[in-house]
UniProtKB/TrEMBL annotation:
This is Sugar ABC transporter permease. PANTHER family: BLR7065 PROTEIN, SPERMIDINE_PUTRESCINE TRANSPORT SYSTEM PERMEASE PROTEIN. Its main location: membrane. It comes from the Bacteria. Residues 76-290 form the ABC transmembrane type-1 domain. The chain crosses the membrane at residues 21-42, 80-101, 113-133, 173-192, 213-231, 269-294. It is a multi-pass membrane protein.
Length: 298
């Protein structure tokens, strides 16, 4: 009898049924995604009461306070600025570098391999690196910018409201532009050569070839890269936390950093959950709108 049961179980696992293989994935999805989402929604209607040492129901108070909170709107403005500026810079830089590295000449393969090095560095470590390089006294970037007359010694990069966000952006550009380069390179090297040969015979210039052949054929690749990188940019946290802690003032406060501060520094668990849910809704709306506009097909 035991042999029959064992054989039946073994046959069930090795059979054509997808259930044994999907069950672990579904369990992980429930534990790490669905349950936290519904718990976060539930938590947004509660708040931690320090004197009672428990969560108490507050109704829509957190939601009402959120939309009346000027710090939330400032953090949202910084998040969108960070999102759009960096996305544009990384797409343009990534495409330019990818075009330069799209060659089979000796050494270019090594250069393409070196691009992966920045991607394996934790963002917190990158933030510490640029924090030191932008130090007003011994930072190498500060020294170079002062020597070029771009920066004054009385205006430290990360301690000045007008330049702090740009200082944080430098770290992100350095670390994640290679990600865009690698995606664009993969797309460029998979393009058919026949349209380029026809363009060459017709006497098309390099710019005309790029605008009329390369860009249209790369549109889906660019769309996917923008989608992946855009989602990551919208929830930026590491660089701000390490380099500026949101300062000076609120000039580098993003939604993710603001949610963390409210949750763990001020012990407002319900309010932090509310900010997180708004961030999630914004990401979903922007991502799906972009998928619809760019006609991305998975």
């Amino acid at each position: 009898m035991a042999f029959v049961r064992t054989r039946g179980l073994r046959g069930y696992i090795t059979g054509d049924s997808p259930v044994p293989w999907l069950a672990p994935l579904v369990a992980m999805l429930v534990v790490f995604t669905i349950y936290p989402l519904f718990y976060n929604i539930w938590l947004s209607f509660h708040e931690y009461a320090p004197f009672k040492r428990r969560l108490v129901y507050v109704g829509t108070e957190n939601w009402n306070n959120l939309f009346a909170d000027p710090r939330f709107w400032e953090a949202l403005s910084v998040t969108f600025t960070y999102f759009f500026v960096l996305l544009a810079i990384q797409v343009v830089l990534g495409m330019i570098i990818a075009l330069l590295l799209d060659s089979d000449e000796p050494g270019f393969g090594l250069l393409r391999g070196l691009l992966t090095l920045t991607l394996v560095i934790p963002p917190a470590i990158t933030g510490m690196m640029f924090l030191l390089m932008e130090d007003p006294e011994f930072g190498v970037l500060t020294y170079i910018l002062e020597a070029m007359g771009i920066l004054s010694g009385q205006d430290p990069i990360l301690a000045t409201s007008s330049t702090a966000l740009a200082g944080v952006m430098l770290a992100d550009i350095w670390q994640w532009t290679p990600f865009m380069v690698l995606i664009f390179l993969a797309g460029l090297r998979s393009l058919p050569q026949e349209p380029y040969e026809a363009a060459m015979l017709d006497g098309a210039s390099a710019f005309q070839t790029f605008r009329r052949i390369t860009l249209p054929m790369m549109s889906k690749v660019i769309a996917v890269a923008v989608l992946i990188r855009g989602i990551d940019l919208f929830r930026a946290f590491d660089y701000m936390f390490v380099m500026t802690s949101g300062g000076p003032g609120t000039s580098t406060y993003t939604l993710s950093l603001y949610a963390w501060q409210q949750t763990f520094s001020f012990i407002k668990w319900g309010y932090g959950a509310t900010i997180s849910l708004v961030s999630l809704v914004l990401i979903l709306v922007i991502a799906n709108l972009f998928i619809w506009i760019a006609k991305v097909r998975w």
